[in-house]
Protein backbone atom coordinates (compact mmCIF):
# COMPACT_ATOMS: atom_id res chain seq x y z
CA UNK A 1 0.00 0.00 0.00
CA UNK A 2 1.32 3.48 -0.89
CA UNK A 3 2.48 5.50 2.09
CA UNK A 4 0.49 8.59 3.00
CA UNK A 5 2.42 11.80 2.38
CA UNK A 6 2.71 14.06 5.40
CA UNK A 7 4.01 17.63 5.67
CA UNK A 8 5.18 18.68 9.13
CA UNK A 9 5.09 22.28 10.36
CA UNK A 10 7.44 23.38 13.13
CA UNK A 11 8.51 26.60 14.82
CA UNK A 12 11.56 25.58 16.85
CA UNK A 13 13.21 22.54 18.38
CA UNK A 14 11.19 20.06 16.38
CA UNK A 15 11.53 17.04 18.66
CA UNK A 16 8.02 15.85 17.79
CA UNK A 17 8.88 16.21 14.12
CA UNK A 18 11.99 14.09 14.77
CA UNK A 19 9.85 11.45 16.49
CA UNK A 20 7.50 11.35 13.48
CA UNK A 21 10.42 11.20 11.10
CA UNK A 22 12.26 8.39 12.90
CA UNK A 23 9.04 6.38 13.23
CA UNK A 24 8.52 6.82 9.48
CA UNK A 25 11.82 5.05 8.82
CA UNK A 26 10.29 1.75 9.89
CA UNK A 27 9.18 -0.13 6.79
CA UNK A 28 5.75 -0.82 8.28
CA UNK A 29 5.01 2.85 8.96
CA UNK A 30 2.04 3.87 6.77
CA UNK A 31 3.20 7.46 6.27
CA UNK A 32 6.28 9.27 4.99
CA UNK A 33 7.41 12.83 5.65
CA UNK A 34 7.59 14.76 2.39
CA UNK A 35 8.30 18.22 3.79
CA UNK A 36 9.30 19.94 7.01
CA UNK A 37 8.38 23.63 6.92
CA UNK A 38 9.02 26.32 9.52
CA UNK A 39 7.90 29.89 10.07
CA UNK A 40 11.36 30.62 11.52
CA UNK A 41 14.45 30.01 9.34
CA UNK A 42 16.45 29.47 12.55
CA UNK A 43 14.23 26.59 13.75
CA UNK A 44 16.62 23.92 15.03
CA UNK A 45 14.46 21.12 13.65
CA UNK A 46 15.27 22.18 10.09
CA UNK A 47 18.91 21.10 10.48
CA UNK A 48 17.84 17.67 11.67
CA UNK A 49 15.35 17.22 8.83
CA UNK A 50 17.92 18.26 6.23
CA UNK A 51 20.49 15.84 7.67
CA UNK A 52 17.87 13.08 7.36
CA UNK A 53 17.33 13.92 3.71
CA UNK A 54 13.84 15.36 4.14
CA UNK A 55 13.06 18.46 2.04
CA UNK A 56 12.65 21.60 4.13
CA UNK A 57 11.19 25.03 3.61
CA UNK A 58 11.54 28.06 5.85
CA UNK A 59 10.08 31.51 5.61
CA UNK A 60 9.72 34.09 8.33
CA UNK A 61 6.16 35.19 8.95
CA UNK A 62 7.36 38.56 10.22
CA UNK A 63 5.70 41.54 8.58
CA UNK A 64 3.24 39.38 6.67
CA UNK A 65 -0.50 39.07 6.93
CA UNK A 66 -1.57 35.72 8.38
CA UNK A 67 -3.52 34.55 5.32
CA UNK A 68 -0.74 35.69 2.99
CA UNK A 69 1.88 33.74 4.92
CA UNK A 70 -0.35 30.67 5.14
CA UNK A 71 -0.81 30.71 1.38
CA UNK A 72 2.95 30.37 0.96
CA UNK A 73 3.09 27.40 3.33
CA UNK A 74 0.03 25.86 1.69
CA UNK A 75 1.63 26.10 -1.75
CA UNK A 76 4.80 24.43 -0.46
CA UNK A 77 2.83 21.60 1.13
CA UNK A 78 0.88 20.98 -2.04
CA UNK A 79 3.96 21.19 -4.25
CA UNK A 80 5.56 18.53 -2.02
CA UNK A 81 2.52 16.31 -2.58
CA UNK A 82 1.42 16.37 1.08
CA UNK A 83 -1.93 14.70 1.73
CA UNK A 84 -1.86 15.38 5.48
CA UNK A 85 -0.34 18.04 7.72
CA UNK A 86 1.08 17.40 11.18
CA UNK A 87 1.60 20.45 13.37
CA UNK A 88 4.53 19.76 15.66
CA UNK A 89 5.18 22.70 17.97
CA UNK A 90 3.95 25.08 15.27
CA UNK A 91 3.32 28.18 17.33
CA UNK A 92 1.22 30.13 14.90
CA UNK A 93 -2.48 30.70 14.69
CA UNK A 94 -3.74 29.52 11.32
CA UNK A 95 -5.96 31.43 8.94
CA UNK A 96 -9.47 30.01 8.40
CA UNK A 97 -8.65 29.46 4.71
CA UNK A 98 -5.64 27.33 5.53
CA UNK A 99 -7.60 25.27 8.07
CA UNK A 100 -10.46 24.79 5.59
CA UNK A 101 -8.02 23.65 2.90
CA UNK A 102 -6.79 20.85 5.17
CA UNK A 103 -10.10 19.98 6.80
CA UNK A 104 -9.89 16.53 8.39
CA UNK A 105 -6.33 16.21 7.09
CA UNK A 106 -4.43 18.18 9.73
CA UNK A 107 -3.45 17.04 13.23
CA UNK A 108 -1.83 18.84 16.15
CA UNK A 109 -0.14 17.68 19.32
CA UNK A 110 -0.80 19.68 22.46
CA UNK A 111 0.82 19.22 25.88
CA UNK A 112 -2.32 18.90 28.01
CA UNK A 113 -5.25 16.58 28.47
CA UNK A 114 -7.63 18.54 26.26
CA UNK A 115 -10.13 20.09 26.69
CA UNK A 116 -8.13 21.21 29.74
CA UNK A 117 -5.56 23.97 29.32
CA UNK A 118 -5.62 25.16 25.76
CA UNK A 119 -3.01 27.72 24.72
CA UNK A 120 0.30 28.26 26.49
CA UNK A 121 1.75 27.40 29.95
CA UNK A 122 -0.16 24.15 30.07
CA UNK A 123 2.25 22.45 32.48
CA UNK A 124 2.12 25.27 35.04
CA UNK A 125 -1.66 25.35 34.74
CA UNK A 126 -1.87 21.65 35.59
CA UNK A 127 0.46 22.14 38.58
CA UNK A 128 -1.44 25.19 39.81
CA UNK A 129 -4.71 23.31 39.59
CA UNK A 130 -3.28 20.55 41.79
CA UNK A 131 -4.06 17.91 39.15
CA UNK A 132 -2.83 14.38 39.82
CA UNK A 133 -2.14 13.87 36.11
CA UNK A 134 -1.18 16.01 33.17
CA UNK A 135 -0.50 14.67 29.68
CA UNK A 136 -0.75 15.25 25.97
CA UNK A 137 -3.39 15.05 23.26
CA UNK A 138 -3.42 14.64 19.51
CA UNK A 139 -6.42 16.25 17.87
CA UNK A 140 -7.81 17.12 14.48
CA UNK A 141 -7.26 20.81 13.76
CA UNK A 142 -10.31 23.02 13.42
CA UNK A 143 -10.53 26.80 13.32
CA UNK A 144 -10.62 27.07 17.14
CA UNK A 145 -7.23 27.02 18.88
CA UNK A 146 -6.33 23.60 20.36
CA UNK A 147 -9.85 22.44 19.67
CA UNK A 148 -11.22 19.81 17.32
CA UNK A 149 -11.90 16.13 17.96
CA UNK A 150 -9.33 14.48 20.21
CA UNK A 151 -7.99 11.31 18.61
CA UNK A 152 -5.76 10.07 21.45
CA UNK A 153 -4.31 11.11 24.79
CA UNK A 154 -1.61 9.92 27.19
CA UNK A 155 -1.88 10.67 30.89
CA UNK A 156 1.36 11.48 32.69
CA UNK A 157 1.41 11.34 36.51
CA UNK A 158 2.53 14.51 38.26
CA UNK A 159 5.33 13.75 40.74
CA UNK A 160 5.89 15.44 44.10
CA UNK A 161 8.24 18.37 43.54
CA UNK A 162 7.52 18.58 39.80
CA UNK A 163 8.18 21.94 38.18
CA UNK A 164 6.75 23.07 34.86
CA UNK A 165 10.07 22.09 33.24
CA UNK A 166 10.40 18.65 34.82
CA UNK A 167 6.79 17.88 33.95
CA UNK A 168 7.21 19.18 30.39
CA UNK A 169 10.25 16.97 29.88
CA UNK A 170 8.30 13.84 30.90
CA UNK A 171 5.25 14.78 28.87
CA UNK A 172 7.50 15.27 25.86
CA UNK A 173 8.51 11.60 26.08
CA UNK A 174 4.83 10.71 26.02
CA UNK A 175 4.24 13.08 23.09
CA UNK A 176 6.90 11.36 21.03
CA UNK A 177 5.23 7.99 21.58
CA UNK A 178 1.71 9.19 21.00
CA UNK A 179 2.04 11.32 17.89
CA UNK A 180 3.43 8.79 15.48
CA UNK A 181 0.99 6.03 16.49
CA UNK A 182 -1.97 8.36 16.24
CA UNK A 183 -0.86 9.75 12.89
CA UNK A 184 -0.34 6.22 11.58
CA UNK A 185 -3.86 5.23 12.67
CA UNK A 186 -5.29 8.40 11.23
CA UNK A 187 -3.82 7.99 7.75
CA UNK A 188 -4.94 4.37 7.54
CA UNK A 189 -8.41 4.77 9.07
CA UNK A 190 -9.92 5.57 5.69
CA UNK A 191 -9.05 2.05 4.62
CA UNK A 192 -10.24 0.34 7.80
CA UNK A 193 -13.53 -1.56 7.43
CA UNK A 194 -14.95 -0.37 10.79
CA UNK A 195 -14.43 3.26 9.86
CA UNK A 196 -15.83 2.76 6.38
CA UNK A 197 -18.89 0.90 7.71
CA UNK A 198 -19.55 3.72 10.19
CA UNK A 199 -19.52 6.26 7.30
CA UNK A 200 -21.92 4.14 5.21
CA UNK A 201 -24.18 3.44 8.20
CA UNK A 202 -24.41 7.12 9.10
CA UNK A 203 -25.57 7.98 5.60
CA UNK A 204 -27.83 4.97 5.01
CA UNK A 205 -29.68 5.27 8.32
CA UNK A 206 -30.27 8.98 7.72
CA UNK A 207 -32.68 8.01 4.92
CA UNK A 208 -36.39 7.80 5.80
CA UNK A 209 -37.47 4.57 7.53
CA UNK A 210 -34.11 2.95 6.92
CA UNK A 211 -32.99 0.09 9.13
CA UNK A 212 -30.02 -2.25 9.38
CA UNK A 213 -29.98 -6.02 9.49
CA UNK A 214 -27.38 -8.65 8.75
CA UNK A 215 -27.92 -10.54 5.53
CA UNK A 216 -25.58 -13.20 4.11
CA UNK A 217 -23.16 -12.10 6.84
CA UNK A 218 -23.11 -8.53 5.53
CA UNK A 219 -24.40 -5.39 7.23
CA UNK A 220 -27.35 -4.52 5.09
CA UNK A 221 -29.59 -1.45 4.90
CA UNK A 222 -33.21 -1.52 3.87
CA UNK A 223 -36.53 0.14 4.35
CA UNK A 224 -38.27 -1.09 7.52
CA UNK A 225 -40.18 -4.26 6.65
CA UNK A 226 -39.33 -3.53 3.03
CA UNK A 227 -36.64 -4.01 0.44
CA UNK A 228 -32.87 -3.63 0.80
CA UNK A 229 -31.06 -0.74 -0.80
CA UNK A 230 -27.42 -1.21 0.30
CA UNK A 231 -25.00 -3.91 1.42
CA UNK A 232 -21.66 -3.31 3.06
CA UNK A 233 -19.27 -5.85 1.64
CA UNK A 234 -15.99 -6.77 3.32
CA UNK A 235 -13.84 -9.48 1.81
CA UNK A 236 -16.99 -11.12 0.48
CA UNK A 237 -16.20 -14.58 -0.91
CA UNK A 238 -12.55 -13.70 -0.27
CA UNK A 239 -12.42 -10.88 -2.83
CA UNK A 240 -10.25 -8.86 -0.42
CA UNK A 241 -12.06 -5.59 -0.99
CA UNK A 242 -14.31 -3.28 1.02
CA UNK A 243 -17.23 -1.81 -0.85
CA UNK A 244 -20.83 -0.76 -0.74
CA UNK A 245 -23.35 -2.37 -3.07
CA UNK A 246 -26.20 -0.18 -4.23
CA UNK A 247 -29.02 -0.48 -6.73
CA UNK A 248 -28.58 1.17 -10.09
CA UNK A 249 -31.31 3.34 -11.55
CA UNK A 250 -31.33 1.72 -15.00
CA UNK A 251 -29.90 -1.51 -16.45
CA UNK A 252 -27.32 0.35 -18.53
CA UNK A 253 -26.08 2.32 -15.57
CA UNK A 254 -24.03 -0.52 -14.15
CA UNK A 255 -22.00 -0.85 -17.37
CA UNK A 256 -21.70 2.90 -17.68
CA UNK A 257 -20.29 3.31 -14.16
CA UNK A 258 -17.84 0.44 -14.58
CA UNK A 259 -16.75 1.92 -17.88
CA UNK A 260 -16.22 5.36 -16.36
CA UNK A 261 -14.04 4.13 -13.48
CA UNK A 262 -13.22 0.41 -13.66
CA UNK A 263 -10.99 0.54 -10.55
CA UNK A 264 -13.86 1.77 -8.40
CA UNK A 265 -17.04 0.22 -9.78
CA UNK A 266 -17.67 -3.45 -10.36
CA UNK A 267 -20.40 -5.96 -11.05
CA UNK A 268 -21.11 -7.66 -7.71
CA UNK A 269 -21.19 -11.45 -7.98
CA UNK A 270 -24.64 -13.01 -7.34
CA UNK A 271 -26.42 -9.64 -7.37
CA UNK A 272 -27.24 -9.32 -11.05
CA UNK A 273 -27.36 -6.28 -13.29
CA UNK A 274 -29.49 -4.11 -11.05
CA UNK A 275 -26.70 -3.52 -8.55
CA UNK A 276 -23.25 -2.00 -8.65
CA UNK A 277 -20.33 -2.37 -6.25
CA UNK A 278 -18.42 0.77 -5.27
CA UNK A 279 -15.03 0.24 -3.70
CA UNK A 280 -14.45 2.20 -0.49
CA UNK A 281 -10.90 1.06 0.18
CA UNK A 282 -9.06 3.11 -2.43
CA UNK A 283 -8.30 5.97 -0.04
CA UNK A 284 -9.99 8.69 -2.11
CA UNK A 285 -13.68 7.99 -1.57
CA UNK A 286 -15.98 10.89 -2.38
CA UNK A 287 -18.49 10.59 0.45
CA UNK A 288 -20.92 13.10 -1.07
CA UNK A 289 -21.09 10.81 -4.04
CA UNK A 290 -21.68 7.75 -1.85
CA UNK A 291 -24.47 9.65 -0.11
CA UNK A 292 -25.98 10.44 -3.47
CA UNK A 293 -25.81 6.81 -4.62
CA UNK A 294 -27.36 5.57 -1.38
CA UNK A 295 -30.16 8.04 -1.83
CA UNK A 296 -30.74 6.97 -5.43
CA UNK A 297 -30.70 3.33 -4.36
CA UNK A 298 -33.16 4.05 -1.57
CA UNK A 299 -35.45 5.69 -4.13
CA UNK A 300 -35.35 2.53 -6.25
CA UNK A 301 -36.92 0.46 -3.48
CA UNK A 302 -38.96 3.00 -1.50
CA UNK A 303 -42.74 2.64 -1.57
CA UNK A 304 -44.53 5.39 -3.42
CA UNK A 305 -45.88 7.03 -0.26
CA UNK A 306 -42.37 7.47 1.14
CA UNK A 307 -41.06 8.75 -2.17
CA UNK A 308 -43.69 11.45 -2.12
CA UNK A 309 -42.57 12.52 1.36
CA UNK A 310 -38.96 12.58 0.21
CA UNK A 311 -39.88 14.74 -2.79
CA UNK A 312 -41.64 17.22 -0.53
CA UNK A 313 -38.61 17.27 1.84
CA UNK A 314 -36.26 17.78 -1.13
CA UNK A 315 -38.10 20.95 -2.08
CA UNK A 316 -36.97 22.64 1.14
C1 LIG B 1 5.61 20.35 22.37
O1 LIG B 1 5.52 20.11 23.73
C2 LIG B 1 4.21 20.52 21.78
O2 LIG B 1 3.25 19.71 22.39
C3 LIG B 1 3.94 21.97 22.08
O3 LIG B 1 5.16 22.61 21.83
C4 LIG B 1 6.24 21.71 22.07
C5 LIG B 1 7.09 21.67 20.83
O4 LIG B 1 8.24 20.89 21.05
N1 LIG B 1 2.89 22.46 21.27
C6 LIG B 1 1.96 23.34 21.67
O5 LIG B 1 1.98 23.86 22.77
C7 LIG B 1 0.89 23.65 20.65
N2 LIG B 1 -0.22 24.32 21.25
P1 LIG B 1 9.03 20.30 19.82
O6 LIG B 1 9.33 21.48 18.89
O7 LIG B 1 10.29 19.74 20.41
O8 LIG B 1 8.17 19.28 19.16
In short:
This protein has about 325 residues and is α/β, with parallel strands linked by helices. It has 2 domains: about 180 residues, Rossmann fold (3-Layer(aba) Sandwich), CATH 3.40.50.170; about 120 residues, Aspartate Aminotransferase, domain 1 (Alpha-Beta Complex), CATH 3.90.1150. It has 10 helices and 13 strands.
| Fourth CATH level, the homologous superfamily of the largest domain | Formyl transferase, N-terminal domain
Measured on Cα atoms, how large is the radius of gyration? 24 Å
Specify the number of helices: 10
The parts where pLDDT drops under 50 for at least 5 residues are none
Kindly report the oligomeric state of this protein. single chain
Distance between the termini: 43 Å
Order of helices and strands: EHEHEHEHEHEEHHEEEEHEEHH
In this entry the ligands are: glycinamide ribonucleotide
Instruction: Assess the beta-strand content as a share of residues.
Output: 15-25%
Strand sequence of the main sheet, in spatial order? Answer: 3-2-1-4-5-6-7
- Give the biggest beta sheet: 7 strands, mixed
| Number of self-contained structural domains | 2
The backbone outline, from C-alpha atoms, is: elongated
| Strand runs, count | 13
CATH class membership of the largest domain: Alpha Beta
CATH fold category name of the largest domain: Rossmann fold
Reported CATH architecture of the largest domain: 3-Layer(aba) Sandwich
The chain-level structural class is alpha/beta
Mean pLDDT across every amino acid position? 95
Binding site for N(1)-(5-phospho-beta-D-ribosyl)glycinamide: 14-16
EC number: 2.1.2.2
Family: Belongs to the GART family.
Keywords: Purine biosynthesis, Transferase
